[in-house]
Amino acid sequence: MRLVTIKDMSVTLGAHVALSHVDLTIDKGEIVTIVGPNGSGKSTLLRSVIGAITPDSGTVLRAAGLKIGYVPQSLAIDPTLPLSAGRFLSLPNRRPAEAVAKALRQAGVEDIADRPMAGLSGGQFQRVLLARALMDSPDLLILDEPTTGLDQPGSADFYTQIEEVRRTTGAAVLMVSHELHVVMSASDRVVCLNGHVCCHGTPEIVASAPEYRALFGTGTHGALALYRHEHDHHHHEDEACDHDHPHTHDHLGNH
User: Fold this and answer.
1) Would the pTM count as exceeding 0.85?
2) What pLDDT is stored for residue 218 in this prediction?
3) CA-wise closest residue to 20 among 246, 151, 195, 153
């Protein structure tokens, strides 16, 4: 089932062309990761999908009745407020305790409902934001660099939880991330953005694309940790970037 269809979308913010002629689809249950350098239009794309920005040209079509859950990069909460995680999930309208407990369980932090928000670790705080996004059983979960500030094990744990959320709820996931060495293995499709779609496809295809490498470089100093792996295979036409692929690819691995 198609949840979102973006066709030939362009967005201008002030005098700056943020996005130019972007095409993107999101289907039920898939994980799509958006990558790109700072200023490449990633957040503008998310806001367009949500409906917070109206494109200057092109179309954004959402499935009828589409429910979206949103996990921001961060959220500032006054540390002096005596606000527990459970109470936070009940703002602004009180929610049944069972619904709060279910959302925390889905986010992997079922035991912290009574803990103060100000006392949570960075990873726990982001899990609570995830739980909040899951409260209304969204069809599409949107995450804007949700692991900013977490260490690599914390990021890996968070994305493992996202995979579990997709598996158990069937929600599609659209996320922005710089952490391809962690994210890509969980993604069905990766879209490399730099004001326009540079390339897209499976993680392996994007990892090997010259357009991607021109933006991020190679090796561990960039966004992508790679290992060499040789094999022969064929790519589907709709998954290819705008170039020919050699049979030797840089593939992702936690090795």
Assistant:
1) no
2) 58
3) 195
